[in-house]
Amino acid sequence: MDETTYIKNVHTVQDSLDDLRRSSKTKLCYQRCYEMFGTYLEQNGLECSANASEEWLLSVKGNIDDTTYKLYNAAMHKLNDLYLTGKIRGSIYCNNNENQLCSEHKAVLESYCRSIASLSPFTVENHRRHIVNILTLAQRRVRMSITDISYDDLLSICNKHAEKTYYARTNFHTVLNGLLQFLYLRGKVTYGYTLFVKGIAMRKGYYWNNADSSEIEELRHSQTEENDYLSLDDFLLIQKDLCAEHVDAGYSVGRIRTLIRYTDLFYLFMDMNRLSYSPEVAALWLSSIKHALSSSEYKSCRCILSLLEQQYRNIPHDLGKSFYYKKTDFDKLPMWCKTTVAEFMDMKQAEGWELSTLSMYRSSICRFCFFLDKQGITAFSKVTSAGIKQFNVEDPHATPAGKNAYNAMIRKFLIYLGDRKLLSNPFLFIALPGVAAPTETLVVTLTVDEQSALEVSLGENDNGLSLRKKAVLQLGLHMGIRSSDIVGLLIDDIDWNNASIRFIQKKTKYEVNLPMPVDVANALFRYIMYERPETSSRNIFIRTKAPYIPLTKGVCQGALHDALPERDVAGSGFHVTRKTFATGILRSGANPQEVAETLGHRGTAAVHRYLSLDEENMRLCGLDLASHGLLLEGGLHYE
């Protein structure tokens, strides 16, 4: 062996690796290869040649892994090039496939390689090799135009790399993704193709191959006949709007990435199956992937799809709440009565009733209409008093008060039908009786021990109660404000200079201006300054995490439970603080009118319930029982 020439050629190859920006591991592998091959030549008295290198490679192949063998093979080809031609040719992986490409595919290849010319020569050569193989495989499937390549073609191409090493698959996926991104930017493929590799890399396949083909075909057919669907371009606009909403609401990057991930995979599913967006398509996809998701992943995906549906239906939505649209009883009403019920509900909404009241109207009337429909009635003019009485008998309720509440709503609906001359008898509402008499419930307040324990908790600094919970409890216990009004308080409602809070009560729509005790003011100040997140919201009490939106009144009950965990009184929630406050000021000598004004009541009727709890003053109101004819046994008078 000519050792001098061998060493010179080895150095030339190794220097070329620097020009190609190969990694240090690759250089070390080449060096080890040449050292072993040099020893082999010297021990066997051979000259460097293609035959010698081939025999040596065969002798070591069984002792090295596949990746190392490929690097050794590449090192031998480069060394043989120098001996034979005096220079190193291009990549050993170049083959004649490039010459077999059609003109359009060659143009795509050259255009793509020019777009990545700023990368290292080795990287460009690596991309070129993979793309030649991709286009060759596509051409074998008679895809002579780049726009003809389908998702099935891409799946077939990827399957040929499924058994390769992780490094080889990753390398191939990177090149394929780069090519698809390149083609999308030039309008050759749809946006879904840019998502294909990301979906493949998850190695689950649940975004495309688990939905029933017959259901997909049925949905595809229905979308050609109806207009109740959304184009995929419009779907991307909804995705963009939802992302912007999450950013504005202060959600974490992880949450936004989850949103993009699921909506992208859903888009890919629709594009692969030639579907447009509709809630029915979303339901099919969700059911087809459920088996592949954990419980938390499924809930997260379902929540995102429900937000998409709300955006699609123009339904106001709350990012902080999980909502899933489904048909209501109103949606299920038969057509003969649905329009009339809708007109009645529109009238009630125009009257300004609360949502809870409107919901009860809708529920009770729907129940009545379902009963009529079940009896074979197809028009309100066919309703009879006997039918109404039968409904009242069969309609189940847990309490007489509940039945009476529903009957009151239905009675007003019957009056409405009579006024519109839709009934055969306008007085049919009389057939629906009242079945519950007015009741008086006992006033429940916090015991003396509970009040003392609560005051201690509010005064301690390190007892597990947050500043928000302490402020909420102070407002309820020392000002008697309802939970619905506490969570609705605004920064602007507080007059710090005059130590007062002015707001309109949600329940009564009555404006009150209440003096703010020092303890309440301090609790609010500490919460606002040291615990309340920075946000543009004017509500005082907001969530501690994104989205920074107003709280629901349930947090008030939660605060009371955390402060008095052992308290368990059925039917007594946070409102007990208001009752305790009212009882306290009554016992302190305030008259009923003053108590009513402090509580924001329009009259004193509601305050009279608290009088029985003022034991000291009630003793002063004792009656002479004898003057009322109440005598002791035997006719004796009371002393």
Brief digest:
The chain is elongated. It is mainly α. The protein has helices at residues 3-19, 24-44, 50-60, 66-85, 103-115, 121-140, 151-159, 166-185, 192-201, 213-223, 232-248, 253-272, 279-289, 295-312, 335-350, 355-374, 385-394, 400-419, 448-459, 467-479, 483-486, 518-530, 554-563, 575-587, 592-599, 615-618; strands at residues 494-495, 500-504, 511-515.
Structure, explained:
The chain has helices spanning 3-19, 24-44, 50-60, 66-85, 103-115, 121-140, 151-159, 166-185, 192-201, 213-223, 232-248, 253-272, 279-289, 295-312, 335-350, 355-374, 385-394, 400-419, 448-459, 467-479, 483-486, 518-530, 554-563, 575-587, 592-599, 615-618; strands spanning 494-495, 500-504, 511-515. The longest helix is centred in the first third of the chain and has 21 residues, at 24-44. The N and C termini lie far apart (138 Å). With 639 residues, the chain is an all-alpha fold. Mean pLDDT is 85; it is low at 91-95. Strands 1-2-3 form a three-stranded antiparallel sheet. It is elongated. The chain has five domains: 3-85, Orthogonal Bundle (DNA polymerase, domain 1), CATH 1.10.150; 96-201, DNA polymerase, domain 1 (Orthogonal Bundle); 213-312, no CATH class; 340-431, Orthogonal Bundle (DNA polymerase, domain 1), CATH 1.10.150; 448-617, Intergrase catalytic core (hpI Integrase, Chain A, Orthogonal Bundle). It is 56% helix and 2% strand.
